[in-house]
Amino acid sequence: MCRFGFLPVLSSKKLVWPALAVVLCSAADQPHALAAQTSALTCARCHEAQVRTQPGTMMGRALSLAGDNPVLDAHPSLTVQKGDFTWTVETSGGHSTYSVTDGKSTLSASIVWSFGAGNQTWVLDRDGQLYESLVSYYTSIDGLDTTTGDDSIVPATIEQAFGRQLDPVDARACFGCHSTGSAVDGRLTLAALHPGVACTRCHTGALEHQAAMNSGDFSVYPPDLSRFSTEDLSTFCGQCHRSWEMVVRSRWHGEANVRFQPYRLANSRCFDGTDPRISCVACHDPHQPLIRNLASYDAKCLACHTVATRPSGRKATARSADAATAPGPAYASQPKSCPVANSGCVTCHMPRTRMLGGHLVFTDHDIRVVHPGDAYPN
Ligand code: HEC
Ligand code: HEC
Ligand code: HEC
Ligand code: HEC
Ligand code: HEC
Ligand code: HEC
Ligand code: HEC
To answer: Within the chain, which residues score under 50 in pLDDT?
Structure first.
């Protein structure tokens, strides 16, 4: 990391937004909105590593604006027919249009806000009202189907088929989780937002820190998130991924809650709100893309469980189970070892679970022994 700007500013060559490369450290003097937009770039002067990778992560791309949507560019014509209605999403020259027709009349809107870096739902402006599109794009079918959560809506009119109208609270929440700087004093300010989860969305106080650093005052820092306890970090990530408390209060039961990792993880016997080895950032660096190589997580599990030092296999394990109950320095403070395998832990103990609707699959963070035929634990 560069301290006090010793790195040449032009290291920003490697950045994802080269068009902004001329904007340097003056963000703090500008209106808040512009500051949010340029912040990642200006942070780059001193935090090059995070800025190089974070904007390209799924979180960094959780929302995209018109003209910057690789998913739609790659799918110039999407269509699906259900019941009496046909939906289409057509893209050319960076402009996308969402339409629904019943054969007699058609409703259309330009797509400005695309939610989701892979699977996508569109928030549409029709006559000054915001709607969530009733169909979405899913990577698993490489096409359109009903938006998750809207499965129970059976549209009777073309207005209903267009989408679900968002009240101001819903709309603010959508943009609040998928973008940065979308609200000023609690009011949605769509013209000002920076798409995606950017530095200042997680590091509140970073703009003040940056301004201070740039003026030679080295005493102002954003809260140090690495000092958060495991429990507090779960709640922090849970402001968007949904905290344990939110899920319990909302009574979200069944497979639908598999997507709420902070809740699922807290239900696992592995979870200890004071042990950093089971915190979100023990397994995920929020500045880096999600690691898809499942074997790489073994080390995370083995930070607590450790592999039995004797030969693996069921027979050997019976002995290790005995040893685990016997007093002894090597076992006294250690959770049990696996009697079945000593690698590939998450493939058996964090099962992939398909949500209702069928197109979305999540990794169950309720780490546990899974017996075939077991009911989904809530
Ligand atoms: C002029 C240089 C400079 C700029 C610009 C700058 N920072 Fe920093 N930042 C620092 C230094 C120096 C530290 C202390 C480094 C350390 O603790 O290793 C720091 C620390 C941090 C920390 C860690 C806080 C802690 O206590 O560990 C975060 C988070 C952070 N900066 C975020 C940002 C963000 C986001 C931006 C852009 C809005 C930004 N910084 C802009 C120099 C800068
Ligand atoms: C401001 C809201 C917000 C916060 C805070 C947040 N996330 Fe996310 N995160 C998202 C959204 C939105 C997505 C979905 C991106 C997409 O698929 O378009 C996401 C996706 C992810 C993914 C999946 C990435 C992938 O490649 O599939 C991981 C892992 C993740 N977040 C981890 C974390 C961790 C760890 C924290 C806490 C340090 C955190 N998030 C905090 C909003 C947030
Ligand atoms: C409380 C924060 C929050 C709110 C509010 C929210 N999202 Fe998300 N959204 C997320 C997170 C986090 C993910 C990442 C997937 C996951 O882990 O659930 C996500 C994922 C998505 C995805 C990717 C596909 C999927 O379902 O995983 C789409 C599309 C999406 N959101 C659209 C929307 C729309 C449209 C709204 C408003 C109607 C909205 N979101 C409201 C946090 C939020
Ligand atoms: C999704 C939330 C999230 C986003 C977005 C995010 N960070 Fe962080 N950042 C964190 C968390 C959590 C930590 C503490 C990580 C840990 O304990 O390992 C952290 C730590 C840091 C640190 C301290 C690193 C160290 O080694 O001490 C710096 C500097 C930083 N972030 C800069 C940035 C910059 C610059 C951006 C934008 C390019 C950014 N962050 C975007 C959540 C985020
Ligand atoms: C012990 C390791 C571990 C911990 C701790 C952990 N995760 Fe994960 N997480 C994983 C694995 C493994 C995957 C699946 C990776 C893949 O699909 O390739 C995953 C996937 C995800 C995804 C992608 C969507 C999904 O569910 O498949 C999100 C989002 C996520 N984790 C968020 C979190 C958050 C938030 C926390 C803290 C509450 C957390 N994780 C704690 C191991 C962990
Ligand atoms: C912070 C330490 C810690 C981490 C990290 C951790 N565990 Fe655990 N785990 C425990 C503790 C403590 C228990 C309680 C039972 C025991 O003593 O074995 C447990 C229990 C279990 C159980 C038995 C659960 C049950 O319902 O009977 C399994 C299976 C398991 N862990 C697998 C894993 C896997 C796989 C990972 C990595 C993805 C992991 N653990 C990561 C501490 C941890
Ligand atoms: C092929 C699937 C599979 C893999 C891979 C696997 N396990 Fe297991 N694990 C199991 C099964 C099945 C059980 C339950 C065995 C029983 O009850 O007889 C189990 C039990 C456990 C237990 C509970 C032990 C007890 O005595 O209660 C822990 C802890 C555990 N595994 C951790 C791990 C860790 C850590 C890894 C990776 C190093 C791992 N497992 C890899 C299938 C697997």
So the answer is: 1-37, 311-332
Tell me, using a 6 A CB cutoff, whether residue 117 lines ligand 5.
no
Q: Which of 41, 63, 202 to mutate to test the pocket of ligand 4 (most atoms within 8 A of CB)?
A: 202
Rounded Cα gap, residues 47 and 61, in angstroms:
19
Which of 14, 132, 120, 17 minimizes the C-alpha distance to 73? 120
For residue 344, with 0-12 CB atoms within 10 Å meaning exposed, 13-18 middle and 19 or more buried, which class applies?
middle
Structure tokens at 286: 């929020």
- The two structure tokens encoding residue 20: 């902004």
Please name the amino acid found at residue 3.
R
Cα-to-centroid distance, 352 and ligand 7 (Å): 16
Residue 286 CA to ligand 4 center (angstroms) comes to 7
**Residue type at position 227:** R
224: left (phi over 0), alpha (psi -120 to 50) or beta: beta
CA 259–ligand 5 middle distance (angstroms): 10
CA dist list (Å): 301 to 146, 296, 311, 336: 37, 10, 19, 11
Q: In the structure, which protein residues have their CB atom closer than 6 angstroms to any atom of ligand 1?
A: 1, 3-5, 25, 39, 42-43, 45-47, 199-200, 203, 206-207, 209-210, 213-214, 221-222, 224
Task: Give me the pLDDT at residue 333, please.
Answer: 59
Task: For residue range 171-213, list pLDDT tens digits in order.
Answer: 999 999 999 999 988 899 999 999 999 999 999 999 999 999 9
Kindly calculate the radius of gyration of the chain based on its CA atoms and give it in whole angstroms.
24
